[in-house]
Amino acid sequence: MNYRHAFHAGNFADVLKHVVLSLCLAHLNKKPKPYRVIDTHAGIGVYDLAGNEATRSPEWKDGIARILEADRPAEVDLVLKPYLDIVRAMNDGKALTAYPGSPEIARRLTRKDDRIHLCELHEADAKTLDKRYALDSRIRVERRDGYAAMEGLVPPKEKRGLVIVDPPFEHRDEMAHMAEAIKDALPKWPTGTYIFWRPLKDLWAAERFDTGLAEWLFDEEYATPENVLRVDLWVRDLEAEGKLAGAGVVVVNPPFTLEADLVTVLPWLCDLLKQEAGAGWRVDGALAEEDFEEDGAEL
Ligand SMILES: C[S@@+](CC[C@H](N)C(=O)[O-])C[C@H]1O[C@@H](n2cnc3c(N)ncnc32)[C@H](O)[C@@H]1O
């Protein structure tokens, strides 16, 4: 387990994932009934952007930093508000040094009767996480394989809620694990919202995961096309060699408002976060379109 998220915290891929997570949680908050958040690959919860890893690899400067510094149109600001409020609160008007991971976003957006279950397999990271949230009785931290844990954690007793699956993609078969996990979980908890993060590095693998998942959901009648949303952002030509060019999430059972919110912010985000020619974005149902369009065209 060599992956260290601190090198990537706050980069464009984190921004997109965390905006989606914040919007899904804000939507769950619209109803008073409690819900459960299950984070299968939690990381350490909060990242120090002035720390050793983030200083050596300051990817956040081309991600969250650009967003905070930009003039944001009102309609974009409204969609980003749940996410940016957290980042601003953590930095309290000072220079940006603290960045929230998915557990911290969940902690800050959930209410007193909601529950959060965090899994993290890395020994030191699991200890950091456990220590960080020891005083919050709503949060349970387990040092455990997130996929194995997910099998037992769904359905949660609250019946409402969300699972976020955000593995490090150190292994070639990660997408297969994700597909197996949802095939086990969805029949047991068909109404949960599931967020799967995946890189857009191996385009063929990403396409196979997205369309395979969507086809399976429709074939098994767990979902109609409206129940699957794929969101991607790429900051340079996807075929270019070198650093990660693109990433996104596949959301099963998204809030009905998510697609419109993302279509509002993604053209702006893409324009702001692009690093080289060939940047783009898409929001679709995974089966609707196969080709990528360049520079922010809506598919
Ligand atoms: C991409 S990071 C998670 C970032 C976090 N979700 C966030 O958004 O802030 C992936 C994490 O998964 C952990 N990990 C790797 N394999 C795991 C497994 N099988 N089960 C649980 N955690 C795992 C890694 O140690 C790493 O901290």
From TrEMBL:
Gene3D superfamilies per record: Vaccinia Virus protein VP39
What function is annotated for this protein? Specifically methylates the adenine in position 2030 of 23S rRNA.
Record protein name field? Ribosomal RNA large subunit methyltransferase J
What InterPro entries does this protein map onto? RlmJ, SAM-dependent_MTases_sf
Tell me, how does this one assemble? Monomer.
Which residues are tagged with the site Interaction with substrate rRNA? 3
Cite the binding residues for S-adenosyl-L-methionine: 18, 41, 102, 120, 145-146, 166
Molecular functions per Gene Ontology: 23S rRNA (adenine(2030)-N(6))-methyltransferase activity
Q: Which UniProt keywords apply?
A: Methyltransferase, RNA-binding, rRNA processing, S-adenosyl-L-methionine, Transferase
Return any one Pfam family short name: RsmJ
Q: According to its UniProt record, which reaction does this protein catalyse?
A: adenosine(2030) in 23S rRNA + S-adenosyl-L-methionine = N(6)-methyladenosine(2030) in 23S rRNA + S-adenosyl-L-homocysteine + H(+)
Tell me the protein family, please: Belongs to the RlmJ family.
Instruction: Report which superkingdom the organism of origin falls in.
Output: Bacteria
- Catalytic residues at 166 (proton acceptor)
- Supply the EC number(s): 2.1.1.266
